[in-house]
Amino acid sequence: MRFVEERREGYITRIIDETTIAVTDEDGFEIPVLASQVTRVHGQNSNDDLVSEPSQATETEFISTGIYLAVAADKKAGLVVHLHLVNSTSYQLLATLTTEKSNKFKGEFNGIVKSRSAVPMYSASLNELDQWPKFHLQILQFAVDIHEMKKPIEFTEKFRAKDFAGIKKTSEYLEQPAWLIQLDSNEPIIDAQALKESFYKPVEEKLQIENPGKEIDLHIEKLRDDHQFLNTSEILDIQLTYFRKSLDAAIVHKLPSIIFIHGSGNGTLRNEICKLISKHPQVKTFMDAHKEKFGYGATEVFLK
């Protein structure tokens, strides 16, 4: 504050009454004056407002890695997902997303993603996963005070069901858990084995093969929790793989017979099983199992 009638300046330190304030001058002396006798100096700080502005937090350490592609389910429509670019680094990102389908390209997103933020780029339905395009994502990283020169990130992927069978993780920049794919890691971008763990955990390899029991149910919903994301070919491969392992286990344990429940359906799985066991050297014969219980939906295999 500056005194109107004197060449002196100071700061308001307290309010005495409705018309009088206390001003501490440059020499540290507190002087009571009428409020009308001082004026604010432009650009100077004062505490006459009695409420100080919160000080800016000091900048935290520079974070150089932590760029993710996040796939989050829609809160209202569970099978609809949104692809977000999550930037948990101290860099600003200049990003573009282009889709490719039948050799045709379409720009879907371009923009700047601020440090410690996330932006949506694309939406689609998991029910139509086999119709999704291939994604081409390109990212440049920028910071005023460059800590490390980063190479551009280029990520290209045609997603499959197994990529969304993993454990969802939480990001502080999204409001819900999501499948996270780190884009700036030296590790493989997609670890398919890790992503499958929450839905399908393969039986651990053991030195001693477990006894498969008398009946094996090959219905896909019994084998995989993510079966709704699989196409017909993938389902058949999974069922036949499980069939072979179970048959081998039955042979190792010298079971006299084993029943495979394949269902009636269109007969594709049943026919494939019949082809395999008709040529198998350890199979004595096979026939429909317990028609009164399974109809034509199960086959009993008799072993040598």
- Count of alpha/pi helices: 5
CATH architecture of the largest domain: Sandwich
CATH class of the largest domain: Mainly Beta
The CATH homologous superfamily of the largest domain is termed: Smr-associated-like
- What's the helix-strand series? EEEEEEEEEEEEEHEHHEHEHE
- Give the proportion of residues in helices: 10-25%
Main sheet overview: 4 strands, antiparallel
Radius of gyration: 35 Å
Gross geometry: elongated
**Average predicted confidence as pLDDT:** 80
Strand order of the largest sheet: 10-7-6-13
Tell me the domain tally: 3
Structural class, from helix and strand content? alpha+beta
Distance between the termini: 104 Å
CATH topology of the largest domain: Immunoglobulin-like
What portion of residues belong to β-strands? Answer: 25-35%
Task: Report on the architecture of this protein.
- With 304 residues, the chain is an alpha+beta fold.
- The chain has three domains: 2-39, no CATH class; 67-193, Smr-associated-like (Immunoglobulin-like, Sandwich); 215-303, Ribosomal Protein S8, Chain: A, domain 1 (2-Layer Sandwich), CATH 3.30.1370.110.
- It is 14% helix and 34% strand.
- The protein is built from five helices and 17 strands.
- Strands 10-7-6-13 form a four-stranded antiparallel sheet, with no helix packed on it. A four-stranded antiparallel sheet has the order 9-8-11-12, with no helix packed on it. The protein has a four-stranded mixed sheet with strand order 14-15-17-16, with helices on one face.
- A hairpin with a 2-residue loop joins strand 8 (92-101) and strand 9.
- The longest helix is centred in the C-terminal third of the chain and has 21 residues, at 232-252.
- It starts with a strand and ends with a strand.
